Amino acid sequence: MAFARVNGVVLHHEVRGDAGAPALVFSNSLGTDFRIWNEVVDTLGKRYRIVLYDKRGHGLSEATPAPYRMMDHVADLFALLDHLGIEKAAVVGLSVGGLIVQGLAAMRPDLISAMVLCDTAHKIGTAEMWNARIDTVTSKGIASMSDAILERWFTPAYRKPENADFVGYTAMLTRTTVDGYAGTCAAIRDADLTESTRALKLPALCIVGDQDGSTPPDLVRSTSQLIEGARFEIIEGAGHIPCVEKPAETARLIGDFLNEAGWR
Ligand SMILES: O=C(O)CCC(=O)CC(=O)O
């Protein structure tokens, strides 16, 4: 675990694996921190130099005052990779992390060799929806809407109080800072990457849980159709966060795709 001040914000991050191995970078979703990737990364093994980080306002990263712009998150990730001396990487992004990845691939195509977009889209939700969420989180706190969020994140089979992992991920969500959550809602609200994503030319895999209540399969499929040659895969028995609910299947899809893309 390490901290670095980049792009004017302190980011918590971790680098695992051999410095000479191909870099594989993970960007997480709204209301989560980088621990959501732990099982996927363990399953992928030692093939890659893994970079995990908490975006601003999440996990142990600094929570600058809301609102944020998508470009803040994109520039943070770019600055972190620069700080780590990484000149080429494959990137995996979940939901808002996928928007960050699409934004980085558009801004610095030279830096990104391949991308995996998990449960994300070129545009997520409507301004009305995000404004209502920002109002609720700032006036009543995240816990006031956590049940609804968790219904979109996880399948009914996973959402059991006796499932210790579910209780843990609920704590991860509710402990997210209000600035981080509301600030990132504003960034998602204002991001429409349709045209820049349509122009991307790189190997791409789009993955979605069959029961994703936040970015449903049809939405993720429509994003994959924007990107020439992109593959689209559905993971059965998962909601919005397959890397937590179905880590082995998620890791298999990512590993096979990166092999085929020659990133090994
Ligand atoms: O998960 C994200 O990064 C944004 C999509 C979302 O709204 C998730 C949720 O339903 O809470």
Automatic annotation (TrEMBL):
GO MF assignments: 3-oxoadipate enol-lactonase activity
Any one of the GO BP annotations: beta-ketoadipate pathway
InterPro entries tied to this protein: AB_hydrolase_1, AB_hydrolase_fold, AB_hydrolase_sf, PcaD/CatD
EC numbers on record: 3.1.1.24
SUPFAM superfamilies for this protein: alpha/beta-Hydrolases
Pfam family for this entry, one: Abhydrolase_1
Keywords from the UniProt entry: Hydrolase
Domain AB hydrolase-1: 22-131
PANTHER family tied to this protein: MONOACYLGLYCEROL LIPASE (PTHR43798)
Entries under NCBIfam families matching the protein: protocat_pcaD
Protein name: 3-oxoadipate enol-lactonase
Gene expressing this chain: pcaD
